[in-house]
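hiii so my PI (J.) wants the whole complex modelled not just the main chain, which honestly fair. so below is everything: two entries, each one labled with what it is. i double checked the lines twice but i was tired so who knows lol
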Amino acid sequence: MIKTVAELKRGEKGIIKEFADDILPIKLLELGCLPGNEIELVQIAPLKDPIYINVNGSHIAIRRSMAKLIELEIIEDAHLL
Amino acid sequence: MSKQINVALIGNPNTGKTSVFNQLTGLNQKVGNYPGITVEKKEGICKLPRGVKAHIIDLPGTYSLNTTSLDESVAVELLLNKNDKDYPDVAVVIADVENLKRNLLLFTQIKDLRIPTILVINMADRMSRKGISIDIELLEEKLNTKIALVSTRKNVGIDHLKELISDYKSLSISPNIDTTVIAPEYFERLKTTFPKEDLYKLWLVITQDVNFMPIEKNLFQNATSFATKSKPELKRLQQKETILRYQFINGILKQAHKIDLNAAKGLRATLDKILTHKVFGYLIFFLILLTIFQAIYVWSEYPMDMIESFFANASELVKNTLPPGVFTNLIAEGILAGIGGIVIFIPQIAFLFLFIALLEETGYMSRVVFLMDRIMRQFGLSGKSIVPLISGTACAIPAIMATRTIENWKERLITILVTPFTTCSARLPVYLIIIGLVIPEGRFIGLSYQALTLMLLYLIGFFTAIFSAMILNKILKIKSKTFFVVEMPNYKLPLVKNVAYTVLEKTKSFVFGAGKIILAISIILWFLGSNGISDDFKNAEQIVENRITNQGLTKFNSDALEIDMANYELALKDSVANKTNTISNLAIQDSVAKKYTELFERAKRQEIASYKLENSYMGYMGKAITPIVEPLGYDWKIGIAVLTSFAAREVFVGTLATIYSVGSDEEDTITNRMAAEVNPKTQKPLFNLASGISLLLFYAFAMQCASTLAIVKRETNSWKWPLGQLVFMSVFAYIIAFIAYQILK
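here's the output for the full assembly
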């Protein structure tokens, strides 16, 4: 099943999959949103949008619409194992 | 040859770049604008070892050299243009120790431009707390540069940095990364077309515009003509470049950088949870806003009172010490009144920027953006619009400049267009004076009517802004990609020095920016009000004196005189009865007679002054527009004040002060003078509830600020928007004020 950043729960992590070239703004890539990097959902705003992620050491807030474009491979949460 | 070294400070936002700049330059700095655009230009002088001086430019914060905004393009253009007088001999890249990886992306790009580049790792004092260890020597070797570990908070490492800057010639300028591998064939073609140019520089010139939103400029038109690739293709290459750079950086950091993740969490997570909580988050934000308003209204009252009485005294002093004449009047009534009208705003502006600086410095502002984005979006705004809308309560000019952080053009444009509705500090003096005059003093559940009115006006301003945003969102047909990325920086204790500099800077720019216009207008007004050509003006004394001899004082003045005299007599008799004063009955009569003459003379002078003004140039101008403003409940004097306010609102009070004090020897406080004004038609006080509310509403909605219009023109790069704003807001204001007056009168 395909999962995107928008579907993560608070504290969940995933690894960014390869994505199509033109989807994300270059600024997001510069902040570390690159294929293979780990992404963690830190906070969700009170009205469920925007969301606040930690990717590659960068703490950034993005809107849900953009988060839906970032596909993930889910890694099991270390705490649950 | 001059010994001055050009140094460019460059770095990601939130890395403490400004702190480093402040540490290097101290008060030897100035803030201006880049020619033709509103991007702030900060530069300063720093003394280096061995008598060398450095000219330091603090470039706008950027994540990379792939520009997405005007601010960023300023930084890139300087680094690309060898002919610029500020072209750096050495670039200093400021990195934050916690985000080293991301900061190095920018570093490698600059290094590849073959500019000698020093790496500053800032906030080094946090290293041990965050479990970070860095092998500096290894990092220096791999990046082929020199590194300064700095802590601006603890004032550590700045001397080492100065040492490195003065020794910049020994830095290697060889690039870190060979970018051509992302598209060998393309770069080969470039090389044959431009054999003399540096390939990486060419590449940056070509891609400068790729990520831009609408209004940007085209310095490199020639260069783009050989951009043989389409924009999406170039963008893809930029992505490839970014990935390539991160590969390089990751490789190095794996060896030279270690982080113990267990030590890294803590305060940040806790604070985030509270500050972005669905109840506490909004509550805290609301409390902070309340505190800011409290500071602007209550705390700044003390210094403002002092300033006001200082200028009143100064004006009095000038009139009493200098020989009477045109020159003395110019100083006392034109210049001093004008300067006083500017200085009076300083406490409020300083307070507002103090708070904004604190919120930005601590990292809290980003949380507000995060909290508010979803709500603001419903009105076609962005979470980032909240900053301009709040700053707008000080002044629309910095507020509109602050919209630059909004990447989405439509959201940004709407924010720019509605910000002038928020109640700026220039409206405040108008509000305060009118409210004091027309709103009764009683209380409603412990809150004074006057305070409630003021609050209501702020709410009206804010909701009009939001409401117009909603409408604009519906009618503006602009397509632009949603693009919202906000960095959530770590929480920090604000640095006193940074906050102090910001406050100083913003206050200075207000005093010297808006202040010039206000002063000029004050002087022009003084001239127009104290000169005239008609015989009525020249023979004013004679005409008024004849009138008083024949008909007595005007009804209002004679009534006021009667009341004043009765009070005076009563007080005098009371003091005798209480034995605080021992004078005979005869002496009382004497004293009363003297007082009467004094008051009568004063009333006469005021009538002369008023008659003169009525027949001065300004009087004629005011009368010409009377038919337009009469339906709003104003007379020609208010008409003039409204007219001059179209240059800047705060001029309203200054204009009235000038109108009423011209020719009068007594420096009555302006409020008393206004309260004494009578509507010649109704013989009732001119400032009554109906005309007062009408004025308040007019000022709440009208676009009366030439400086704001100029800024909007610059930011939108077209006259269409500011002119639309001017016409729409003013017509709207007129209609609302008209309705209010006609209902209430």
